[in-house]
């Protein structure tokens, strides 16, 4: 049996394209007979019984992990490996790899807990088992909801802030004075642990081991699909009312400034001109001008404008050219129009931008089952940005039940430093975080910001990752106040200081019964692999993640910790990676938690429903089944910052439970067989780690 | 210079994948520098002048073909080949190939003229030049509009039909009595000429020659694109009002029975139940039942129905399984529901089907710029079908300015013969065509059918091409009345008899001032290459055409005769060919006239606007430029059966002219540079043929 299994996996590995890591995990899909034969050999009816009789003690992994029984999961065919296979590596390598993985898992668990971000229950349970302890419910790590009991803005104690408060250490030291934070209120020394995981991810043994495990996960899913596809479909067919169209989906990654499609923007511009031609809308060289005069100065008449002349859509010219892509944000290439229509701060107080967003929100409300998490920018260029943004938000009531707001911080210190807007990186951090600390400590003095912060659910870090990614953040890196050179800090440097501030901020806010924030950076769209490592230690979830293709160790860690990844294959297709080469399908098959998002409908999408376009194209190109699509939709809700109430309503009351128990098929339209497969597969991999660490 | 050109083409050919014909025409896109260098070498400013000075007589092809001047075409960079290159084949092979191609072109021209179908002006002009004659405008072959002067139903002379009228020869012999047809009223002896082209398409010399020409066309377009992409875009940006969204596009291939998307059908079923639960809608085992009873007999309640349980969407299970795909036409797997909702003949007189179609039409009218050409079925099973169909059409007023109607004939003689519905194939032809002849000859006796025929624009031939494609139609094939075996006739046999009847019918109808029909079969979706040959000789335009990949000779002939091809990559993706492997992009680049169509939105599409979904996905996956998309839209209008007035309105008054003169950029949003490139490229290839034939 073991020889057979090895033979099967050897033949699986044979087709492997070893030219580079990128194509390393492709599994040839063209030999269904082999899969079927393998399944046939490894599996017969009432298999569990028979196996128990035949091999009472030979399996190193307890049978109950492989074939648990649940309420309400129909029978399905399982793929089981009998015999001590251990991924075809030597016992020494196996143990070494498992220990490395175990350490990495505990590190993420610790940092997630510090920042009130998510860590999967199942993985925690296995970690406790490895440590010989037992899992306690209060250890469950979940992104924090505000404490309902606390109410809003009551009993806030004023805390004096000592300068310089721009740096996380400084913030941390403040909060150590307050009781509940004492035990966990220290910001972590990430650089050192970071280096440790980094070294591990480049050691040959863990690389081989995780690579083989990922190959296995892919093959296993292919077999599962072949065996159970019809059974999964049967569950969905018997599920009344619910289908892909009316299960909830969240656009987990979208920029507010490009959340409308190009045709929508065009129509809005034309409409605004018909109504407001004589309105003063802009200051041109110090002189107030009407909209008519503004368009005249651009030698344009909106009546003649077309999608082509608007020129905000990404095309072949933008591929691998993030700079050109950024220029596409300017309608007709005119930054004046960007200011007028897509900014919160301008002569008309961001009115048009607010109206466009409200129109997009209204379309989502009409579609009923679609939600979005738009990002608004805070640049850190000056300390009044938060005030202005929240005034805009409150004044225009840019609110919709279908929108959850996030703040994106562009990594453009170098530009501000170059123009002498900030003296050092510490000042930028201060501009970004100090107002939020102040509003948290003394909400009554910052009423609008406090209201706005109730709607903010998290922070994103954005910019072209292919730039500035050389420098690796380490213990010797200068402190933010000392970073006064013109050069931009590295991605990891940004990430660390954002995380540290968010972590401390969350501790403070949780203590006061306020909502906390998740850290959800753009990561792995391009650039160095270290980005993905930094996010592994700090981020609740990420956007893009393409470069996980290049590191089997990190990819396996993202799988074990079930870090959600908001993927945008249409955006990638225009910028970094051809559609057919997108790893979305591969990640999904292996069991990484992927969701679909649009990124920038203005630049990438053609139809009136960009999120549906994204799903439709993925379904067509990757031939996703309904169950796949509904699973991705479910992932998107889980990844999102929807409230506990909303998630309970959309996914079922037990959504926090992992495995089939946490799934309510009547709401999600995800087959219980699929849920059981995912859960058992995760447990099996975690169990291997446990065996590897314990066997020492 | 010649050595250089050969070197360039040699390196182009090097990357060629020679495993089979299918991948034979792929050009590696990854060496832009080479293209650019080549263009740089071959082209400089005021090139024509310089070249005229340097090589006054060395070029075998006159300069005026390469660089004509037009009104209103901006300057652009042209790719020119200097020196007598002749595609790298010997002079003998070149001449042999050109003669074969010339013969094939004249054959299509003849048959198109006989049936009042299209043949390109430019190609005709070159054919006349080769023959030493000159082109006369009255020779222009275009699909026939009814003669406006004739009026409707006036002055019709009754003609006695002699039996057996099922066969085209018989029809032809009738019409020889009427004067205007005498000269051209003979149905052609297709089998013999067919064999001649078929032999040619398999001869090595033409295969090599056409293969090389097609490679050249591909490379030439790639270079053109690289040099002029920005210039083309500039034209579009300067074109006021018009962009991709508001240029007209026609869904050139869609089946009426699946013209709604799955969600639309689901909603309609639920709505009909809410209103009509107690209505008698069906006869079950001879007993009349209400809708409620019908659903009860199926153990269903429409309230619980979902897209999943409806199960009309193609999935992975349908790939390469046309049989399973056909079964998807039955909602919930129940043919009773297909009868009730998607048939013109049923207990409620096809009311629901008519309503659904009118809803689809209303969506198209709202979208304003989208049109469709749905197919309704005539089976030829009994002679009353036309009467019933036209009654349905007239009764329910299934009419919309955004719909043009076609009749599809399923190739399922074998099924009817097996059930003894028809005694021989001739009877089936009689059932299909005799009612139309009768209504043409005596419209007043067939008022409803006559009205319906005014709305019918053409005939389609449909079914799984991968079946029954072995037999090659030849002069020894039995006559239709003699075909009384259970076996289905071959594709070519069907095509020939449909063409012959349509040709004679068109002659008769044209003579009486009525609208004529075009023959637009499904062709080359699967099965033998002979299908494409048969269509080359008989069809105005085709649907699918995928198999042109496999025959360079036919592909080149389709290019030279500019036969429009309605492609449906999403349909292919579910049935026969993965999306990324679809030849749409390749055909488009080479200059074949391709349009995009949905085929069956119910089975393949997800969004509310299936045609936009089709365009969006093609644009994303193939990275089409706006100019590409607008060119494809323009092709779709040209291919469609829109009236002369509509085409003039949508494409510009001169749309019948070929080249940039026929394009009105204000209406089509296609760059004049692109039009000039296409026109000059076609002329260049035709000129080569002329040189090859004349040099003898």
TrEMBL record, chains A, B:
Pfam families: AMP_deaminase. It catalyses: AMP + H2O + H(+) = IMP + NH4(+). Keywords: Hydrolase, Metal-binding, Nucleotide metabolism, Zinc. GO terms for biological process: AMP metabolic process; IMP salvage. GO terms for cellular component: cytosol. It is an enzyme of class 3 (hydrolase). Its cofactor is Zn(2+). The keyword Ion transport does not apply. Residues 42-68 are annotated as: Disordered. GO terms for molecular function: AMP deaminase activity; metal ion binding. Pathway: Purine metabolism; IMP biosynthesis via salvage pathway; IMP from AMP: step 1/1. Residues 56-67 have a biased composition (Polar residues). The keyword Hydrolase applies. Its EC number is 3.5.4.6. Belongs to the metallo-dependent hydrolases superfamily. Adenosine and AMP deaminases family. This is AMP deaminase. It comes from Gasterosteus aculeatus aculeatus (three-spined stickleback).
């Amino acid at each position: 049996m073991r020889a057979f299994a090895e033979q099967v996996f050897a033949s699986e590995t044979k087709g492997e394209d070893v030219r580079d890591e990128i194509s390393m995990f492709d599994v040839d899909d063209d030999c269904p007979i082999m899969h079927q034969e393998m399944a046939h050999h490894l599996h017969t009816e009432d298999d569990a019984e028979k196996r128990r009789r035949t091999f009472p003690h030979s399996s190193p992994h307890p049978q109950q992990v492989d074939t648990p029984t649940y309420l309400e999961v129909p029978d399905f065919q399982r793929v089981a490996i009998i015999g001590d296979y251990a991924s075809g590596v030597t016992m020494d390598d196996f143990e070494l790899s498992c220990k490395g993985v175990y350490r990495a898992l505990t590190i993420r668990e610790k940092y997630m807990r510090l920042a009130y971000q998510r860590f999967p229950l199942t993985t925690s349970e296995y970690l406790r088992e490895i440590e010989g302890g037992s899992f306690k419910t209060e250890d469950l790590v979940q992104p924090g909801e505000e404490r309902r009991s606390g109410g809003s803005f009551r009993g806030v104690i004023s805390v004096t802030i000592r300068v310089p408060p721009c740096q996380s250490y400084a913030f941390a030291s403040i909060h150590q004075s307050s009781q509940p934070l004492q035990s966990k209120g220290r910001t972590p020394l990430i650089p050192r642990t970071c280096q440790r995981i980094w070294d591990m991810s480049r050691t040959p043994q863990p690389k081989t081991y995780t690579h083989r495990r990922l190959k296995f996960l892919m093959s296993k899913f292919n077999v599962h699909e072949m065996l159970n596809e019809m059974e999964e479909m049967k569950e969905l067919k018997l599920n009344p009312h619910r289908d892909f169209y009316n299960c909830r989906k969240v656009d987990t990654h979208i920029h507010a400034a490009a959340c409308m499609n190009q045709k929508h923007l065009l129509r809005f511009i034309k409409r605004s001109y018909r109504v407001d031609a004589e309105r003063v809308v802009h200051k041109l060289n110090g002189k107030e001008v009407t909209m008519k005069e503004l368009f005249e100065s651009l030698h344009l008449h909106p009546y003649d404008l077309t999608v082509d002349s608007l020129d905000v859509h990404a095309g072949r010219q933008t591929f691998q050219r993030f700079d050109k892509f950024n220029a596409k944000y300017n309608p007709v290439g005119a930054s004046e129009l960007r200011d007028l229509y897509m900014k919160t701060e301008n002569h008309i107080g961001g009115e048009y931008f607010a109206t466009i967003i409200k129109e997009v929100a209204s379309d989502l409300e009409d579609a009923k089952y679609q939600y979005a998490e738009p990002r608004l920018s805070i640049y850190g260029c000056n300390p009044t940005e938060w005030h202005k943004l929240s005034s805009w938000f409150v004044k225009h009531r840019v609110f919709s039940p279908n929108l959850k707001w996030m703040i994106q911080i562009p990594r453009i210190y170098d530009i501000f430093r170059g123009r002498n807007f900030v003296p050092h990186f510490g000042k930028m951090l201060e501009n970004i975080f100090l107002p939020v600390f102040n509003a948290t400590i003394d909400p009554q003095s910052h009423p609008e910001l406090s209201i706005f912060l109730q709607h903010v659910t998290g922070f994103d870090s954005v910019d072209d990752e292919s730039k500035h990614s050389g420098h690796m953040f380490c213990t010797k890196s200068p402190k933010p106040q000392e970073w006064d050179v013109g050069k931009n800090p590295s991605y990891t440097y940004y990430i660390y200081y954002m995380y540290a501030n968010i972590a401390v901020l969350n501790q403070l806010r949780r203590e006061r019964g306020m909502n906390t924030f998740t850290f959800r950076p753009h990561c792995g769209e391009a650039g160095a692999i270290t980005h993905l490592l930094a996010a592994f230690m700090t981020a609740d979830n990420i956007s893009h993640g393409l470069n996980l293709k290049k590191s089997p160790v990190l990819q396996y860690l993202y799988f074990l910790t079930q870090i959600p990844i908001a993927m945008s294959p249409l955006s990638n297709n225009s910028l970094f990676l051809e559609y057919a080469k997108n790893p979305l399908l591969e990640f999904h098959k292996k069991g990484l938690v992927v969701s679909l998002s649009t990124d920038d409908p203005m630049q990438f999408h053609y139809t009136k429903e960009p999120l549906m376009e994204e799903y439709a194209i993925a379904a067509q190109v990757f031939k996703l089944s309904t169950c796949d699509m509904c699973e991705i939709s479910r992932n998107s809700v889980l990844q999102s910052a929807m409230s506990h109430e909303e998630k309970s309503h959309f996914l079922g009351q037990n959504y926090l439970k992992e495995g089939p128990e946490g799934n309510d098929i009547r709401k999600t339209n995800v087959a219980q067989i699929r849920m059981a497969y995912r859960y058992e597969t995760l447990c099996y991999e975690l169990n291997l780690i446990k065996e590897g660490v314990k066997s020492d």
